[in-house]
Give the backbone structure.
Amino acid sequence: MRTTASILHLDLDAFFAAVEQRDKPSLRGKPVIVGGTGGRGVVSTASYEARKYGVGSAMSGREARARCPHAAFLSGRFHAYRATSKEVMRVLRDLSPLVEPLSLDEAFVDLAAAGLPDLDVATVSEVGEQLRERVHEVTGGLTATVGIASSKFLAKVASELDKPDGMTVVPPGTELDLLRPMNVTVIPGVGPATTERLRRAGIHTIAELELVSQEELVRLLGQAHGAGLWHLARAQDHRPVLPERETKSISVEGTYDTDLTDRRLMEGLLTRQAREVGTRMRKNGYSGRTVTIKVRLYDFTTLSRSSTLPSPTDDGGTIGRVARSLLGDLDTTGGVRLLGVGVSGLADWVQEDLFGEEPDDDGADEVVLPEPPRRTWPPGADVVHDEMGAGWVWGSGSGVVTVRFETAETGPGPVRSYKADDPALHRYEPPADD
């Protein structure tokens, strides 16, 4: 923990949904939900108008529709999100050379490297307000919430206190006063399982956690987790802002519209995913030792199994063989809705011939893999009509596409319907560098 409030955390408010409302004027001020458009879909982001109805990230689309049936459910436009994120990250890097992106919509900034005249609370507060104004300007009206404090932990906590479109600065020396009344769930890594263990021990707030010895927390939660919580409960966080975050794992997963029950089919899917993982690893110059599979059952129970190899590999066949062996330890008779393969323990070298000359895929190529249905006109997708110009898919079905013609600059526009194969209607293709 520093002696100055010199770490800033910026979080774009309801980012995906906000981009959609910016680019679709008719949706401004209305509930917008990105994701959850299919029978198996989950919510990625909900606008604040939708959150009033209890809709949140990772909620199933079915539950989100039950809570907010009048919301606009959109499939998402990642080219637009990436382009907007690039502008925001450029603004942050203009402020300081030390910027650590956490995702498209949030990042840490080291203000100690920003060349400011000083790091007094008044100075960093002014910088934070100017940054929020600049973000609003370059994004075409999006808002961001900022937290500034003496550590990454405190800065992130602070950025949750005045959402949306706010800012909180934690003066040095007041960190514990801020933390003590808070629930332990504000600490990173304290999920439902840890929360329940702490509850059983009579620990609900950070003030109560602070009274527990490190030895007791280690006994309760394990060495790494227990020691980490002991330090964070005392506002002790010395992690630097790292402009290049190390890639810790590479994974591929898929969710299926129909529960999978055929074990041979699941093995084939894992084989295909393992190949994709291997390709991505080689493309990025990585190899890895630990292979993990993720399996979500029909009842949403999520299981994972891992195996660590003696040496790193980037071979999809090797990864696939390990993944299939891990699947063999699981009971999937009730049906599987999601499968995934990942590799962690990354390195920049490969042990050749780890498994000798064993055939690459053990005959898994014979499996016919199901392809997810392709929606030619997903809701929210950008389109262009030869006469009407730019718009977005309002809905589609029975061979008909309904389009609302509007952009961020035009204001709410007219709605027209066309045949799905109308030659004058085209999906917008973003530039290749997007």
Remarks:
- The CA atoms of residues 310 and 408 lie 54 Å apart.
- Confidence is low (pLDDT under 50) at residues 351-364.
